[in-house]
Amino acid sequence: MTPMPSLADANPARPRHWWLRAGAKDTDTSLSVVVNLAAQAENLGDTVNTRLYWDAGHAANQDADALLDWISTITGSSRS
Q1: Residue 28 burial (CB count, 10 A)
Q2: What does the alpha-carbon distance between residue 75 and residue 80 come to, in Å, rounded to a whole number?
Q3: Are 28 and 60 in contact (CB under 8 A)?
Q4: Please, what is the Cα angle at 73 between 23 and 63, to 5 degrees?
Q5: Is residue 48 part of a domain?
Q6: Does residue 5 form part of some domain?
Q7: Is residue 23 part of a domain?
Q8: Which H or E run includes 71?
Q9: Residue 62 and residue 66: Cα distance in Å, rounded?
Q10: In the chain, count of helices (H) and strands (E)?
Q11: Is residue 1 part of a domain?
Q12: Domains in the chain: how many in total?
């Protein structure tokens, strides 16, 4: 459920790109979880894109187009 052990061990097979989103009103996951994941991944030199959605709850998805653009950027593909 958590990638933290993989990040803590600097697992070479870990993902190198992270898209992290959380709602500021999330009652299921502490905001510190997202902040800790982002900090650890950044400290390992991974690409991290983190945002908090104001007034949103758990599993908020408010910028799907931005996610697709980000994927296009990191994969070097064109989004048609």
Answers
A1: 9
A2: 14
A3: no
A4: 25
A5: yes
A6: no
A7: yes
A8: helix 64-75
A9: 9
A10: 3, 2
A11: no
A12: 1
